Amino acid sequence: MNVTPSESPEPSPPGLIESVRAVSSAPEPDRAGQRWGFGAFLLVEAVFILSAVFITAVGRINGASLSSSVSLVLIGSIVPSVLAAAVAVVITKVRGNGPVIDLRLQWTREDVATGLKLGILGLFLTYVAATIWAKAVGEENATSAVGELVTQASLPVSAAVVMFLYVCFIGPVCEEIIYRGLLWGAVERQGWNRWAAFGMTTVIFAISHLEPLRTTLLIVIAIPIGIARLITRRLGASIVAHVMNNFLPGLTLLLVTIGVIPA
């Protein structure tokens, strides 16, 4: 009589805590061929800041202001981020192996799942942290810079939709390329481990928003996003987590702007 051997069950995928623990013993990624470092990040940050200042100055010369010009709000919000991220990608092509290798700009199905889980966790943490923070600083100071600009400019529906797409999708992709792509890669190139990269990118991400009152809140928001990058070692998971984290605030901003819900 033939006996069919019992099949051994497939191992279940590791949980979040196990994945974080595994990072400590995993080898650092190879960065052979990468000829850029912190200087590249500083250049990209300079492009972001100077382009924002230039756009604002040109708008004011032509009589526009952030409180009255829809075009200035859209261009001043979107162009600096997109331009800075584009420069980061170009740097990796000219001075390295390209964005897929140097910035880890890739993802798998597992990365998407991880990003979704951490994005949901991030929404919860953001809600709790934002509630505590608003009570600490006062409701009148609790609006983000983008939210304040959108409210002041009284955007029409078409512009509000563009801003929603920027806050929820374009902005997260650009910021991940700059911080958990370029800056993270610069840290690892120095021979520091990915925990150092996680800590540094989380803090600099928060500070670089140039909103001193919100820096602590932004650090809390950035933690789940950074963990997604830490666990998977790829940018795809952190992009998904960032998109998830921005979606509800972006949707709320859109609904307030078009008058569906009160401000």
Automatic annotation (TrEMBL):
InterPro entries: Rce1/LyrA-like_dom (IPR003675). One of its GO terms (molecular function) is metallopeptidase activity. The chain crosses the membrane at residues 36-58, 70-91, 112-133, 153-171, 192-210, 216-232, 239-261. One of its GO terms (biological process) is proteolysis. The keyword Acyltransferase does not apply. Residues 160-248 form the CAAX prenyl protease 2/Lysostaphin resistance protein A-like domain. The keyword Transmembrane applies. Keywords: Hydrolase, Membrane, Metalloprotease, Protease, Transmembrane, Transmembrane helix. This is CPBP family intramembrane metalloprotease.
